[in-house]
C-alpha cells in the first residue's frame, strides 16, 4: 500500500513536470486542480475496490430473503415470474406507493399545463 | 406532420404494438414484463398515433375523459383489491393469506390478485403517458394558434 | 466474446453520458440520451434482468424522448 501511494505520487510528479515542460502557458492553478482531482479520484477508486465483486455467491445481497423468495415464491404467490411475485405480492404496498407517485405527478402536470 | 411514409408505417405498426403491450400486461405473471412496461408500450402506441397523424386522431383513439377515467380507475382499483383482501380476512394487499384462488402456477389464470393488480397498473401507466403527452402538445397548439389569441 | 461486448457497451455508455452533459444543442442531447437508454437496456439484458430492460427500453428510450422533444418544442432549442 505505501509503495503504491509512493508510485502514484512519483507518477503524478513526473506528469506534472512533463506538462509544465510541454505546455509552458499552463497555469499553476490548472495544474493544482488536476492534481487534486487525481488524488480524489484515487481515493474514490480505493473505495470502489473495496466493494463486493459482481455476481459472487458470498455477496451481502444473497441472504436468506432472496433464498426464501426463490425457494417458496412459487408456492406462496402462485406465479412463476418471481419478479412479478415480489413486486405485486410481497411488496405490493410499495408498488401502490409507486402508482400514487405517478398519480400525484400527473395531477401536478395537469394543474400546471391545462390551458384554460 | 404530413408525411405519407410515416402515416402508412405507423398505421401498419400500431396494432402490433398495442397487441404486444396487452400481451405483456396480461402475461406479467408468467413472463418478463408487467404492468409498468406493458402500460408504457401501450401508451407509446397511442402517442405514436397522435404524432404521425394529428392530435385529433389521437384524441379520437382515447379521449381526455376516458384517459382520466382510466387514470383514476387504475389507482382506485389497485387500492380496492387491497381492501377486498382486508374483507376476506388477510392483511392489506395480501394474496394467499386472503384466500384469493391461486390456481396452478404457470397458467394464464393463476396467482390470485397478481394479474388483477398488473392490469390496473397497466391501465394507469398507459393513461399517464397519454395524458402527459396530450397536455404538453395541447398547450403549444393553443399558444401558436392565431385564431384564438390568449386562449 | 461476451466480455468484449460488455466492455464496448459500457464504453459507449460513458461516451454517451459525457456527450449529453457537454453538448450545447438540446435536441442532440435528447437523441443522445435516447441512445444512452437503449445501451442501458441492452446492459440490463446482459445482467439477466429482462424486466428492467423492458421498462428502460419503453420508458427511458421511448416516452422520455418524446416528452423531452415536446418540452423543447415549447422552449428554446439551445442553452
Distance between the termini of chain B: 23 Å
Radius of gyration of chain B: 19 Å
Low-confidence stretches of chain A: none
Query: Roughly how many Å apart are the termini of chain A?
Result: 67 Å
- What are the secondary-structure elements of chain A, in order, as H or E? HHHHH
Helical coverage of chain B, percent range: 55-70%
Report the order of strands and helices of chain B: HHHHH
Helical residues, percent of chain A: over 70%
Determine the strand fraction of chain B and express it as a percent band.
under 5%
Biggest beta-sheet profile of chain A? none
Shape of chain B: elongated
- Report the radius of gyration of chain A as a whole number of Å: 27 Å
Structural class of chain B: mainly alpha
Instruction: Categorize the overall geometry of chain A.
Output: flat
- How many helical elements of chain B? 5
The number of domains of chain A is: 2
Structure description:
The complex is a heterotrimer of chains A (116), B (151) and C (79). In chain A, 77% of the residues lie in helices and 0% in strands. The longest helix of chain A is centred in the middle third of the chain and has 23 residues, at 28-50. The model of chain A has no long low-confidence stretch (mean pLDDT 84). Chain A has two domains: 2-50; 64-113, no CATH class. With 116 residues, chain A is mainly alpha-helical. Chain A has helices at 2-22, 28-50, 64-77, 82-90, 92-113. Chain A has five helices and no strands. Chain A starts with a helix and ends with a helix. With 151 residues, chain B is mainly alpha-helical. Chain B contains five helices and no strands. Chain B has helices at residues 4-26, 35-52, 55-61, 64-87, 114-144. In chain B, α1 (4-26) packs antiparallel against α2 and α4 (64-87) runs antiparallel to α5 (114-144). Chain B starts with a helix and ends in a 7-residue tail after the last helix. In chain B, 43% of the residues are buried. By secondary structure, chain C is mainly alpha-helical. Chain C has one domain (2-74). Helix content of chain C is 85%, strand content 0%. Chain C has helices spanning 2-22, 26-46, 50-74. The chains are: A mainly alpha (116), B mainly alpha (151), C mainly alpha (79). At the A-B interface, α3, α4 and α5 of A face α4 and α5 of B.
Amino acid at each position: 500500500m505505501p509503495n503504491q501511494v509512493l508510485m502514484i505520487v512519483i507518477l503524478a510528479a513526473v506528469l506534472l513536470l512533463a506538462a509544465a515542460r510541454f505546455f509552458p502557458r499552463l497555469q499553476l492553478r490548472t495544474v493544482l486542480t488536476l492534481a487534486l482531482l487525481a488524488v480524489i479520484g484515487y481515493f474514490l477508486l480505493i473505495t470502489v475496490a473495496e466493494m463486493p465483486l459482481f455476481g459472487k455467491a458470498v455477496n451481502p445481497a444473497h441472504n436468506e430473503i432472496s433464498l426464501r423468495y426463490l425457494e417458496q415464491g412459487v408456492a406462496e404467490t402462485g406465479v412463476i415470474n418471481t419478479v412479478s411475485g415480489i413486486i405485486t405480492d410481497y411488496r405490493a404496498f410499495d408498488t401502490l406507493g409507486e402508482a400514487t407517485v405517478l398519480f400525484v405527478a400527473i395531477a401536478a402536470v395537469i394543474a400546471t399545463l391545462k390551458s384554460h | 406532420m404530413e408525411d405519407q411514409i410515416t402515416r402508412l408505417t405507423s398505421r401498419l405498426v400500431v396494432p402490433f404494438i398495442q397487441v404486444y403491450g396487452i400481451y405483456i400486461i396480461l402475461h406479467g405473471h408468467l413472463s418478463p414484463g408487467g404492468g409498468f412496461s406493458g402500460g408504457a408500450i401501450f401508451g407509446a402506441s397511442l402517442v405514436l398515433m397522435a404524432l404521425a397523424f394529428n392530435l385529433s386522431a389521437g384524441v379520437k383513439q382515447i379521449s381526455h375523459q376516458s384517459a382520466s377515467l382510466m387514470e383514476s380507475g387504475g389507482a382506485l382499483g389497485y387500492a380496492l383489491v387491497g381492501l377486498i383482501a382486508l374483507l376476506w380476512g388477510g392483511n392489506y394487499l395480501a394474496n394467499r393469506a386472503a384466500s384469493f384462488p391461486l390456481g396452478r402456477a404457470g397458467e394464464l389464470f393463476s396467482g390470485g390478485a397478481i394479474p388483477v393488480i398488473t392490469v390496473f397498473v397497466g391501465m394507469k401507466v398507459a393513461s399517464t403517458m397519454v395524458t402527459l403527452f396530450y397536455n404538453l402538445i395541447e398547450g403549444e397548439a393553443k399558444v401558436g394558434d392565431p385564431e384564438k389569441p390568449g386562449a | 466474446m461476451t466480455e468484449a461486448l460488455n466492455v464496448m457497451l459500457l464504453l459507449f455508455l460513458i461516451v454517451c453520458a459525457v456527450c449529453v452533459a457537454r453538448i450545447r444543442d438540446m435536441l442532440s442531447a435528447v437523441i443522445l440520451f435516447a441512445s444512452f437508454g437503449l445501451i442501458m437496456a441492452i446492459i440490463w439484458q446482459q445482467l439477466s434482468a429482462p424486466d428492467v430492460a423492458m421498462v428502460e427500453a419503453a420508458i427511458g428510450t421511448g416516452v422520455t424522448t418524446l416528452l423531452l422533444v415536446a418540452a423543447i418544442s415549447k422552449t428554446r432549442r439551445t442553452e
